[in-house]
């Protein structure tokens, strides 16, 4: 199956549920009478949001009211449309269902980029990595599983695949290898992004590349990355809000036929190997908090760091077109630029907080995501596919 994507960058919007941790700390167990009162409290904290499109799930509406100096109430209605809007009750498997085709197309030899964008605490990492249980597993483990499933199916058609994973983090313009087994907090190696225009492959130098032989391995990798992150950071949340992480799955296939290494199934025809090769890659990107990308800095950041971060963001602004540049710092920008030039399947997931307190940040994010949604990209073409 060949999936040709032309035109706009696809954008999904996902609103997370209100969590117990969102409740004010004063709402201690004794004060809250029971389940019902808890629900009322959650309800009161919610921003006024509606999902009127019950058929296609493409719309989200936000309502705000403010009082003018004259004491007159002003009501505003903001309506946004995306390729798909996921309500707070939506599950990981529902979200993945809409993305799984992209996992399929990287097996077919395409480059795929999926970005999670949104303010800190809006559910980016939950969407991408997810929790430990099968039902809460995020897009990364699900995509890996899907790729393995498809690769297995393709075996009967004579294709043999090699699947590899890498995981990096970009923090203050420095690439950190999240799968490194080094125990030092500082990166022991300097990693650089290299692009080969001949093969249109983008690689990062000296990065740990882990051969994947089963989908369950990905859980270990995510845990290894988590451990690595905690070695490197004293302020975990601070760091995660200021860094981008990129999980890359590389898939390369060779058409060996069914007569050679893999034995043909009973009664089926033997397919001769053609030596045809096919390479694809799937990038799953968990971006820095959008409040950072919108250049607002929290407390505890020194003036020097502030200046450095602002410069880094400005650099990326000049390096790329308006929209994508605002998304990412200079390193990720390179990724996106090349991937876009090589015509990739590009998908953004905008994560939103459901809280009234975050309404203005949500509006900023929704406006930005609309811009991204209206950005034109070229027709996707397959990466290096050659007959040898
Ligand atoms: P971010 O990476 O955008 O900063 P997280 O993914 O860490 O945000 O989410 C913040 C908190 O909300 C985490 O505790 C996470 O488990 C929880 N969370 C996010 N989205 C959901 C969801 N859809 N369902 C349940 N919990 C969620
Ligand atoms: Mg996160």
TrEMBL record:
<dbReference type="Pfam" id="PF00225">
    <property type="entry name" value="Kinesin"/>
</dbReference>
<dbReference type="InterPro" id="IPR027640">
    <property type="entry name" value="Kinesin-like_fam"/>
</dbReference>
<keyword id="KW-0493">Microtubule</keyword>
<dbReference type="GO" id="GO:0005524">
    <property type="term" value="F:ATP binding"/>
</dbReference>
<dbReference type="InterPro" id="IPR001752">
    <property type="entry name" value="Kinesin_motor_dom"/>
</dbReference>
<dbReference type="GO" id="GO:0003777">
    <property type="term" value="F:microtubule motor activity"/>
</dbReference>
<feature type="domain" description="Kinesin motor">
    <location>
        <begin position="8"/>
        <end position="388"/>
    </location>
</feature>
<protein>
    <recommendedName>
        <fullName>Kinesin motor domain-containing protein</fullName>
    </recommendedName>
</protein>
<keyword id="KW-0547">Nucleotide-binding</keyword>
<keyword id="KW-0067">ATP-binding</keyword>
<keyword id="KW-0505">Motor protein</keyword>
<dbReference type="GO" id="GO:0008017">
    <property type="term" value="F:microtubule binding"/>
</dbReference>
<dbReference type="GO" id="GO:0007018">
    <property type="term" value="P:microtubule-based movement"/>
</dbReference>
<dbReference type="InterPro" id="IPR027417">
    <property type="entry name" value="P-loop_NTPase"/>
</dbReference>
<dbReference type="GO" id="GO:0005874">
    <property type="term" value="C:microtubule"/>
</dbReference>
<dbReference type="InterPro" id="IPR036961">
    <property type="entry name" value="Kinesin_motor_dom_sf"/>
</dbReference>
<feature type="binding site">
    <location>
        <begin position="118"/>
        <end position="125"/>
    </location>
    <ligand>
        <name>ATP</name>
    </ligand>
</feature>
<comment type="similarity">
    <text>Belongs to the TRAFAC class myosin-kinesin ATPase superfamily. Kinesin family.</text>
</comment>
């Amino acid at each position: 199956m060949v999936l040709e994507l032309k035109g706009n960058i696809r954008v999904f919007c996902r609103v997370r549920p209100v969590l117990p941790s969102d409740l004010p700390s004063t709402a201690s167990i004794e004060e809250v009478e029971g389940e019902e009162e808890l629900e009322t409290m959650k309800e009161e904290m919610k921003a006024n949001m509606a999902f009127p499109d019950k058929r296609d799930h493409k719309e989200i509406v936000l309502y705000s009211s403010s009082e003018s100096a004259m004491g007159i109430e002003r009501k505003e209605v903001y309506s946004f449309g995306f390729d798909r809007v996921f309500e707070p009750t939506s599950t990981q498997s529902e979200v993945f269902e809409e993305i799984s085709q992209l996992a399929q197309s990287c097996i077919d030899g395409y480059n795929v980029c999926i970005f999670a964008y949104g303010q800190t605490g809006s559910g980016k990492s939950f969407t991408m990595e997810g929790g430990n249980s099968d039902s809460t597993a995020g897009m990364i483990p699900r995509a890996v599983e899907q790729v393995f499933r498809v690769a297995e199916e393709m075996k009967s058609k004579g294709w043999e695949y090699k699947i590899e994973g890498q995981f990096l983090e970009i923090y203050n313009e420095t690439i950190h290898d999240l799968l490194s087994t080094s125990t030092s907090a500082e990166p022991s190696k300097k990693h650089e992004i290299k692009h080969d225009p001949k093969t249109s492959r983008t690689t990062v130098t000296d990065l740990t590349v882990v051969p994947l032989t089963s989908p369950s391995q990905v859980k270990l990798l995510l845990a290894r990355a988590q451990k690595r992150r905690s070695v490197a950071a004293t302020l975990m949340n601070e760091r995660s809000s200021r860094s981008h992480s990129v999980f890359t799955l590389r898939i390369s296939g060779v058409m060996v036929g069914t007569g050679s290494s893999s034995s043909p199934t009973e009664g089926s025809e033997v397919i001769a190997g053609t030596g045809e090769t096919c390479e694809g890659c799937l990038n799953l990107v968990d971006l820095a908090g959008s409040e950072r990308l919108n250049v607002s800095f929290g407390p505890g950041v020194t003036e020097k760091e502030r200046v450095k971060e602002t410069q880094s963001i400005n650099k990326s602004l000049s390096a790329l077109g308006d929209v994508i540049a605002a998304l990412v710092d200079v390193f990720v920008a390179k990724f996106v630029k090349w991937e876009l030039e090589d015509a990739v399947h590009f998908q953004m997931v905008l994560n939103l907080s459901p809280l009234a307190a975050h309404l203005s940040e949500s509006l900023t994010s929704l406006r930005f995501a609309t811009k991204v949604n209206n950005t034109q990209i070229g027709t996707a073409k397959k990466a290096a596919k050659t007959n040898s």
